[in-house]
Amino acid sequence: MTVVRRALSRLGPVLVVAVLALTACAVLTPVRAQAAGSSGLEDVAEGLRKSPVCVDPRARDQLSEAGAEDLVKKIEGADKPVFVAVLPESAEFPPETLMRDLRTRVGIAGLYAVRLGDGFRANADSSVMSRNAVANLTGAVKRSHSGDPEGLLTSFVDQATEQAKGQAPTAWSDSGNDDGGGGGGVLLTLGAVAVAGGGAYALYRRSEKKRRRAELEALRVVVDEDITAFGQELERLDFHPSEPGADDAMRQDYSHALDMYDKAKELMAVAAEPRDVQPVTAALEEGRYGLATLAARRAGTPVPERRAPCFFDPRHGPSAVDALWAPPGGTPRGVPVCEADAGLLAAGREPMTRQVQTAQGPQPYWNAGPAYAPWAGGYFGGVGGVVGGLLAGTMLGSMLSAPSAFADTTPTENAFDGGEFTGADFDPGDFGGGFGGGGFEGGGDFGGGDW
Q1: Are strands 321-325 and 333-337 parallel, antiparallel or unpaired?
Q2: Whether the model pTM is above 0.70
Q3: Which candidate, 142, 160, 136, 17, places its Cα nearest to that of 84?
Q4: Pairing between strand 111-116 and 82-87?
Q5: What is the pLDDT of residues 261-304, one digit of tens each?
Q6: Distance CA 245, CA 307 (A)
Q7: Which residue from 84, 126, 368, 439 has the fewest beta carbons nearer than 10 Å?
Q8: Which value, to the nearest 10 degrees, does the dihedral of the CA atoms of residues 298, 304, 309, 311 take?
C-alpha cells in the first residue's frame, strides 16, 4: 500500500482526473472480454448500463479522455437517456447488426450513438426521439464535423440532450461504477490508480444521490401542504352526490376531483427523485379545475374556461384574469392570477405569494432553486402557452422555458419511456433513425443519417 500511495502522489491530480474519466466511461479491452468469456459487444453493453459513454481503448484516437469525461457530465447533467459508444472496426462489432444487438444487450430505451471506425450512426426508441429527428440530427453533425470525430460527438450530445425525451436510467446513479466492472485498457495498466479513480467517481455519484434525496425531502414538505390544502377544499365544498339538485355532470366533476386527490397522494408516496413531483402537482392542478367546474354548476353560473392556476400560489386554484407583474429588476409580463391577487396588484400591494423554506430563509418558489422546477412544471407545464415568458427573469425561468422542459414522454404503442429497462422486449421497427438497417460507412456527408 505504501508503494501505491507513493505512486499516486507522483502521478499528480491531472493524471488522476484522466483515470477518473476512463473509469466513468467504462473503457473496454479485448483482454477482459476473453477473461470474462463473453463477446466485445457484451462488454460495451455492460459499460453503457453503468455510464452514458463507453470508449474502447483501441478507438481512443477518436475521443480523448477529457472529451469522454465532458460527454459524461453533459449527459448526466441533462438527465437524458443518451448512450455513446466509440469502437474500432473489428469482427466483434459487425456493422450490419450492431445497433439492434447493442440496444438488445443494454436493454434500456434511449438514444444510441455509435462511432465505429470512421463511421457514425444513431438510432433511438420513438418514445425518446422520432425517426426523422434522429436522421436530421445525425446528418447535420456529420456535415458540420467531417473529419473531426470528437467535435461530431460533442455536437451530437449537445443537441441530443436538448431534444431527447425521458430521463436517464437509474442504474447510472445507482451503480457509481465502483464495482470494478468495465475494466481493461489503461485501467489494467495503471491498476491501483484506476481503483482510486473509481472510488472517487463513486463518491461523486453517492453525493449526487444524497443531494437529490435532500431536494426531494424539501419538496415533499411543500407538496404535502398542497395535497392537504386540496383535501380541505374538498371538505369545504361539502358536496354530496345524492343532494337535491345534483346531476350527473356535478357527480362526474366531484368523482374526478377525488380521483386526482387520491392519485396525487399515491404518486407522492412513491416519489424517489425531485422530477417525480411533476405528475403530482399536475394531478392537483387538474383536480382543482374539477372543483371549480363543480362549484360553478352548483351555483348555476357558466363553467369557467380552463386556465392555468394562480401564478403566485397554485393553491389559490384556477386563475381568473391575467395581470401585469415583474420580478425585482425584471420586465413586466402578464401572469395568470386569482381574483384576490388581482385585487391586491391593482391596489399596489404585494400578492399572496407562495413562500418555501430555503437555506437563505423563506423565498418565493421561483427563487428557491432548480429543485422546484418539477413542482412548478406540473402546475404550469400542462397548459399550452402559459410557460413561455411566465418566469423569465427568475431562477426557474430559463429551465421552465427550455424547449424540452415539458416534453411529452408518454410512450407510443409498442414503445417505452426513455431510460426504462426493457431488456430485449422492444420493437426493432420502432428503434431507428430514419434509415434502413445497413452497415456503417466512412465519415462524411451521406445525407439525413445514412452511414
Answers
A1: antiparallel
A2: no
A3: 160
A4: parallel
A5: 999 999 999 998 888 999 999 999 999 999 999 999 999 999 99
A6: 27
A7: 439
A8: -120
